[in-house]
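Hi support team,

I'm opening this ticket because the web form for multi-chain structure prediction keeps timing out on my end. I have pasted the exact lines I submitted so you can reproduce it. The total is 431 residues across two entries, so I didn't expect it to be a heavy job. Is there a limit I'm missing, or should I split the entries? Thanks in advance, R.K.
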Amino acid sequence: MLCDKYKEVLIEAAASGAALPGPVNEHLSLCVHCHGLFAAHQSLFALVDAGLHSRVNVTVPGNFDDRVRAASQIRARQEDRNYSAVLACGSLAAAAAVLMAILLTQNEKHGAKETARTATVESNPLSSPHPTVLSSEAASLRSRSPRSAHSHGSALGATQGSKALVRRQEEPKVLVPEGQEELLAKYMEGIAARKARVAFSADLQHEPNMKPVEFPSIEISELVVKPLSDLSSN
Amino acid sequence: MQELVLIQPIRAGEEQWSREAAQAAKRRDFEERLAECGPLAFRVARGVLRNDADAEDVAQEALLRAYRLFDRLRDGRRFRGWLVRIVFRLALDRARSAKRREVRETEWAQPTRRPAPATAEELAASSEFQAHFDRALDALPEKLRLVLLLAAMEGHTLDEVAAMLELPVGTVKSRLFAGRKKLAEKLQCYVTNTKKC
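Hello R.K., no limit was hit. The queue was backed up. Here is the completed structure from your submission:
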C-alpha cells in the first residue's frame, strides 16, 4: 500500500509521466514499498496506454474507401430510383384525378343533354333536332322560311316554344362553308319534313300517300220533339 | 396554354440539371471528406468493436448516414466531430447487440484455461489480459471511453480532440486522466498481484 500522504501525487505522476516534486522524490528514495508500487503503477499505465494504442491504431483496409464509395453510389442510385418512383406515382395519381374529373364532367353534361332531349321529344314528338348553322345568312334564311319556322316551334304553344328554345341551345353547332348555308337549311328542312311524315303515318297505320276522303252531302232533318203521351198512343 | 407548353419542359430541364449539379457537388465534397475522415471513422469503430469486419460495416454505415444527412450540417468544419459521434453511437449499438449474442452463445460453451504469462510483454500480448482490458474499457462511461479512444489515436493532440468533441481542453484532460485511472484500477491485479482479477 502506498503511503497515504503521497498516494495521489504518485498516481498522478505515474499516469502523466511528469517528474516528481522534491519531497515526494525523497520519500520514494527512502520508502522501498512506495518505490516498488510507483514503478508498478508506471508499468500499469504503460500497459493501459499500450492497450489503447493497439486497439485504436489499426491499419485501415486498403479498399475501404472504394467500398464506401461504391456503397454510397448504390445508395444514391436507390434514392434516385425512389425519387423517380415517387414522381411517377405522383404523376400517375394526378393523371388519374384529371381523367376522373373529365369523365365526371362529361357524364354530367351527357346526363343534362339526355334530360333536355327527353323533355323536348316528349313535348314535340314530330320535331327532330337540327344542327345550328353558325352563319348569320343561314339564320336569316331559316327565319324567312315558313316551314323552318314551323319546325322550330313558332307554331307550337308558349310552353312548347320555351322547351324548343332549351333544346335549340343544346343543339350541335355545325360550321358550314360559305355559300352553302341555304343548301344545308333546305336539306335539314327536307329531313324534318320526311321525319314528320313518317311519324304521322306510323301513328295512323296508313300509307303516307292518302287521298282525301270524300263524303256525300248529308241531309239532317230537323229535330221534332213530341210528348210521351203521343208516343204511347201511336 | 401554348406558353405553358413551351415553358414547362424548360423549367423541368433546369430543375433536373440543378438537381444533378447539386448532387455532383455533394458527391465531390463527400469524396474529399471520405478520404480525410474514412480512417478516423474506421478506427473509432474498431476501438469500440475490436473487430475489423464489424468496424468496417459500422464505419461504412456511419459514412453513408453522414452523406445522406450532409445537407443538414450547417458548419462543414464540424464534420469530423459529427462523424465521430455517429460512428461511436452506431458502434456502441452494434457492440451491445453483439454482447447479447455472445452471452447467449457462451452459456453453452466451456471456458478455456491457459497458463499465466511470465513477462510484462507477454502479459500485454496475452489474450487473457486483452480480454480483461477490453472488458474494463467497455465498462467505462461512454464520455470517458470516447476521449480515451480519440486521444490514443496517432496524430491527435488534446487540442484536436477537444475541438472535435466541442469540449474545453481542461475537460478533455480530466476525462482522459479519469479514464486511464479507472482502467488502471481495474487492471491493477496484473501488476501488484494483491487481488485476483
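A quick check on our side: The longest helix of chain B spans residues 2-49. Let us know if the file doesn't open in your viewer.
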